[in-house]
Specification:
This protein has about 550 residues and is of the alpha/beta class. The protein is about 45% helix and about 15% strand. The protein is built from 23 helices and 18 strands. Strands 2-3-6-1-7 form a five-stranded parallel sheet, with helices on both faces. It starts with a helix and ends with a helix.
Length: about 550
C-alpha cells in the first residue's frame, strides 16, 4: 500500500485520476490479501500508476532539420512534407508566443484549443504511407509506435473491457500509450479501412472519440473509467481506399491523398533506396553489383505494373540474388546489370505494354478506358460486336449495377444520334449488340467508363477505329453531357505507364490536371470534353484517315 501511495504521488496525475487512485488504494488497504477483489484493485492501480500522465518527449521544432529528415527518408511527396512542416511551424510559433496568448482573454467558452492533428494517408499499396509515419516521428523527435487496425472486429479492442469482467484489460490505445511511455507520441493506425463490424460492436464508432481533436482530451477507456488526455498525440491513419471508412470517422480526419509514382520517380526511388537496400539485404558489397538506369527502366516498364514500388523492389532483389549465386560459386566478381543482362536474369517480360495498345485497338469497336482501383490507376479495354438478331443488347465482364446502367445509357445515346453519326436507323432492328469488358474474372463498377462504352459502340457502328494513342474517362448522361469523375491523377499515371499520349477527361476535371506531376503533364495532350461529340471527334479516326 505504501509503495502504491508513493507511486501515485510521483505519477503526476490530474486531479480526477489521483482522486480515483486514492479511493481505490483506501479500499485495497482495508481488504485481506486473500480477497478476490484484492488482485483486481492491485492490477487497476498498477495500470494507473504506470501510465505517462506527465511524461512527454520534447518536440524538435527545427523546421530546417525536419525538412532535411523528410527529404532524406522519402523521395517526392511534396504536399505531405509541406503539411508536416506546417504542423511543426504552428507548434513552434505557439510555443514562442505562449506567454503573450496567456494574457489575452478567452471569449469562446465552449470550444477548447486543439493541439493534436489527425492525418489520414490514402493511397495504393507500396507508395510509402506507413514508412512516412516513422519519418515524421524522426523529424519531430517524438517516439513512434504503430498499431494495425486490420481485422479488428471488437469495439472493446479500442476502448477496453469493464473491470467487472475477469482478466479485463484497457483497450489498445491505452496499452500503446503505456508501452511508448510518453503522452505525446506519433501513433500510426494502419489499415483504418479494414476494420471489421459485427455483433460484437463497431470499432470504427469507438474510434470516433479517439480521432476527434475536439473530444479526445477526455478519452475515457472502459477499464480506467477516468479521462486520459490524447490531444497531444499525433495520430496518423492509413487506408487504401476511402469508401469503407464510415462518413463520421472520415469527417474527423484530414485526408491526404498519395498517388502512384511516375516512371522517373520510380527510377529515382530505385537508385536512392531500393537498390542499396537489396544490395545490403542480399549480403553484397556496393562495388560487386551495379544497375544501369536503362536496366531499371526496363524493369519498371516491362516487369511491373503497379502504382507503388513493392514489386519493383522484389524484381531488383530477384536479379541481385542471381548475382549473389554467381559470386558464391566464384564465377563472377563484379556484375554490371544492363538491359541485355536483366532479360537473361529475370526471364521474358510480363507486360508487353507498348504493343498491347495497337494490337487491341486496330479494329472498330474497341476503346481504351481508364479505371481507378484501390491499388492505383489501371487501363481497361471496352469491346463491342454485333450479329444478326432481334434488337438484343447484352453486356459481360462482371459489371456492377452502375456500370451496367452506363452501358445502357451509352447505347441509348448512340441510337438517339444514329442519323448524325451516319448510322442507318433501321440497322438496330435486325442486329444484336454485345458489349464486353475484358479481364472477365475481375469485378468492375463505377460510372467513369460511360464515355469509353459510347466510343466503343460509335466506333463499331460507324466502322471507324479508335486512335490507339487515346485513352478516356468520364460519366455520360442521356443528353450527351460528360460529367466529372474521381481518381484523375491515378488514371493519368496509368495511361502514361501504358504509353498513351492523349487523354480525354471531363471539362469539369480540368483543375485535377494540376495534381499530375509536371514531367507527365508535359508528355501528354489533354482533351477536355463537355459533350460526347467532343470525345468522338478526338477519339475516332476520321473518314479521310481511314481511307
Amino acid at each position: 500500500v505504501e509503495e502504491f501511495r508513493k507511486k501515485i504521488a510521483e505519477a503526476g496525475m490530474p486531479q480526477e485520476a489521483e482522486k480515483e487512485a486514492k479511493r481505490e488504494l483506501d479500499r485495497l488497504s482495508r481488504l485481506p490479501t486473500a480477497a478476490a477483489e484484492y488482485g483486481v484493485i492491485r492490477t487497476y492501480l498498477d495500470w494507473l500508476t504506470s501510465l505517462p500522465w506527465s511524461k512527454r518527449s520534447e518536440d524538435s521544432l527545427d523546421i530546417k532539420r525536419a525538412r532535411e529528415v523528410l527529404d532524406e527518408d522519402h523521395y517526392g511527396l511534396k504536399d505531405i512534407k509541406q503539411r508536416i512542416l506546417e504542423f511543426l511551424a504552428v507548434r513552434k510559433l505557439r510555443a514562442e508566443r505562449a506567454e503573450e496568448f496567456a494574457k489575452t482573454k478567452v471569449t469562446d467558452m465552449v470550444r477548447r484549443e486543439r493541439m493534436g492533428a489527425i492525418l489520414c494517408f490514402v493511397g495504393p499499396p507500396g507508395v510509402g504511407k506507413t514508412s512516412l509515419g516513422a519519418s515524421i516521428a524522426r523529424a519531430m523527435n517524438r517516439k513512434f509506435i504503430r498499431m494495425s487496425l486490420g481485422g479488428i472486429r471488437d469495439e472493446s479492442e479500442i476502448r477496453g473491457f469493464r473491470r467487472t469482467y475477469i482478466g479485463a484489460l484497457p483497450g489498445r490505445i491505452i496499452q500503446t500509450i503505456r508501452r511508448v511511455e510518453t503522452r505525446n507520441p506519433v501513433i500510426m493506425l494502419d489499415e483504418v479501412d479494414k476494420l471489421g463490424r459485427d455483433f460484437r460492436g463497431d470499432p470504427a464508432a469507438a474510434l470516433l472519440e479517439v480521432l476527434d481533436p475536439e473530444q479526445n482530451a477526455e478519452f475515457r477507456d472502459h477499464y480506467l473509467d477516468i479521462a486520459f488526455d490524447l490531444s497531444d498525440v499525433l495520430f496518423i491513419t492509413t487506408a487504401n481506399e476511402l469508401e469503407p471508412i464510415p462518413g463520421p470517422l472520415r469527417d474527423r480526419m484530414e485526408i491526404i491523398h498519395l498517388s502512384g509514382y511516375t516512371e522517373q520517380e520510380k527510377l529515382a526511388i530505385a537508385q536512392q533506396y531500393l537498390v542499396p537496400r537489396q544490395v545490403r539485404e542480399n549480403g553484397l558489397r556496393p562495388e560487386e553489383i551495379e544497375f544501369t538506369a536503362e536496366a531499371l527502366l526496363e524493369v519498371i516498364r516491362d516487369y511491373t505494373r503497379e502504382a507503388g514500388v513493392r514489386t519493383l523492389e522484389r524484381e531488383i532483389g530477384r536479379a541481385a540474388r542471381k548475382v549473389v549465386t554467381r559470386i558464391a560459386e566464384g564465377t563472377a566478381e563484379k556484375t554490371v546489370i544492363d538491359v541485355k543482362l536483366i532479360r537473361s536474369l529475370l526471364g521474358n517480360p510480363r507486360y508487353g505494354y507498348r504493343t498491347e495498345l495497337e494490337e487491341r485497338t486496330d479494329m472498330p469497336g474497341v476503346a481504351t478506358g481508364l479505371a481507378w482501383t484501390p491499388v492505383g490507376g489501371d487501363v481497361l479495354f471496352v469491346e463491342a460486336a454485333y450479329m444478326p438478331g432481334g434488337k438484343g443488347f447484352q453486356y459481360t465482364g462482371q459489371l456492377g449495377e452502375v456500370m451496367q446502367e452506363s452501358a445502357k445509357t451509352a447505347l441509348s445515346y448512340i441510337r438517339s444520334k444514329a442519323v448524325e453519326l451516319g448510322i442507318d436507323p433501321k440497322f438496330f432492328e435486325s442486329r444484336d449488340i454485345h458489349l464486353h469488358v475484358p479481364a472477365g474474372a475481375v469485378p468492375k463498377d463505377g460510372p467513369s467508363a460511360g464515355v469509353t462504352m459510347a466510343v466503343a459502340l460509335a466506333s463499331l457502328l460507324t466502322g471507324r477505329p479508335v486512335r490507339s494513342n487515346v485513352a478516356m474517362t468520364g460519366e455520360i448522361t442521356l443528353r450527351g453531357q460528360v460529367l466529372p469523375v474521381g481518381g484523375i491523377k491515378d488514371k493519368v499515371l496509368a495511361a502514361h505507364r501504358l504509353g498513351v499520349d492523349t487523354i480525354i477527361i471531363p471539362k469539369r476535371n480540368e483543375t485535377d490536371i494540376e495534381d499530375v506531376p509536371e514531367d507527365v503533364r508535359k508528355a501528354l495532350n489533354f482533351v477536355l470534353a463537355e459533350k460526347v461529340d467532343d470525345v468522338l471527334n478526338a477519339a475516332l479516326v476520321s473518314g479521310q484517315d481511314k481511307k
